[in-house]
Amino acid sequence: MKTTITLSIVILNLVLCNLWITASAFPAMDTKIPTDPKAMKKRYESWLKRHGRHYRNKEEWEVRFDIYQSNVQFIEFHNSRNHSYKLTDNKFADLTNEEFKNTHLGFLPRLRAQTNFTYHKHGELPKSVDWRKKSVVTHVKDQGRCGSCWAFSAVAAVEGIHKIKTGKLVSLSEQQLIDCDTKRGNKGCEGGDMYIAFNYIKKHGGLATAKEYPLTGTNGNCNKAKAKNNAVTISGYKNVPARNEKMLKAAVAHQPVSVATDAAGYAFQFYSKGVFSGSCGKDLNHAMTIVGYGEENGEKYWIVKNSWANDWGESGYVRMKRDTKHKEGTCGIAMDPTYPVKH
């Protein structure tokens, strides 16, 4: 009973914080934003059914409903403005932003040695690139409530260069990195960095397939027997010159690239479609993989593969504004790019 009361107080504090933050985000909210209690309850019940959400008791139902309402108000207010992207009440809509940040990010930046960039002399680059259309990208995966985005980002980049070099697209094991790459600074579901993952893959002699070493989405003991079955190898990794979107474009024109971003804001949590241009900071906390770039109606963008399953964003992807006036790029996307090398 005491535990239940304590948990309720914690969740209530999160709700109040969430309500305060969302309210401060739109102090002059339009009257057009739907606030009818019956309509909101009906929308919530439909959302619960759509996402198969079940709660332990009526109290938690009410708490989550309050969170959902405040999030929907933020979403509807944003969508009423003339932004280049839209938000939606996706599967994260019953989470406070604090809960979301604690469970779905996971990039931990580390100091790394500088490397020679291999694409300085790139010649004329194509106007657009989409590695998905060249069968270089596997399906969108799901890190779940495990801060292992770094593993998914690294694996997607390795899958890409392996396909480019060999002609074979192989889905590789993020779980092996989560369980086994733990001695040089990576911490499984508590976060990590892609370059450490690349180093592990090189020194270990490769990485097993996702079928051989399947995903559990939790920290586990390293299964050394499964980890021995290396399916794909790399020769090392390279850094893209930081704060240089031209060089980042050159790298992406040749292969998928691992990047880190600031994905902790409400807008990224509820992103639905369009070219994401903020709001966000430059505090790198989430890893993804750029798999292309393009332009739409004069708006340049990066095509970025996320690891929150295909029911987030544009079927699991986000298009992020490219060539901004800030050298760091949108949400810091140009601050810390890296890519695997395969000879």
UniProtKB/TrEMBL annotation:
Keywords: Disulfide bond, Glycoprotein, Hydrolase, Protease, Signal, Thiol protease. Residues 44-100 form the Cathepsin propeptide inhibitor domain. It holds the Pfam family Inhibitor_I29. Its main location: endoplasmic reticulum. One of its GO terms (cellular component) is endoplasmic reticulum lumen. The keyword Signal applies. Residues 1-25 form the signal peptide. Residues 125-341 form the Peptidase C1A papain C-terminal domain. One of its GO terms (biological process) is proteolysis. The keyword Protease applies. SUPFAM superfamilies: Cysteine proteinases. SMART domains: Inhibitor_I29, Pept_C1. It is found in: Endoplasmic reticulum lumen. It comes from the Eukaryota. InterPro entries: Papain-like_cys_pep_sf, Pept_asp_AS, Pept_cys_AS, Pept_his_AS, Peptidase_C1A, Peptidase_C1A_C, Peptidase_C1A_papain-like, Prot_inhib_I29. One of its GO terms (molecular function) is cysteine-type peptidase activity. Belongs to the peptidase C1 family. This is Vignain.
